[in-house]
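Lab manual, section 2.4: Encoding a predicted structure.

Procedure: take the sequence of the chain (52 residues), apply the prediction step described in section 2.3, and record the output as structure tokens. A sample record is shown.
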Amino acid sequence: MPNVPSFVLTLLFGELASALLEGSRASSEKIQKMGFQFQFPELKGTLEDLLK
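Recorded output:
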């Protein structure tokens, strides 16, 4: 992404700008504790499946 001043992102995206500027701390830990299982738990397996 090109260097864009934070005030420009705030003008364009409003509250969403904070997610773009600060990132997010998303984690799959909670859903995995509830029993969710990923079909491909590792990136390598996912990419191999996509590229076949």
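Check your result against the sample. Residues 6-13 form the longest helix (8 residues).
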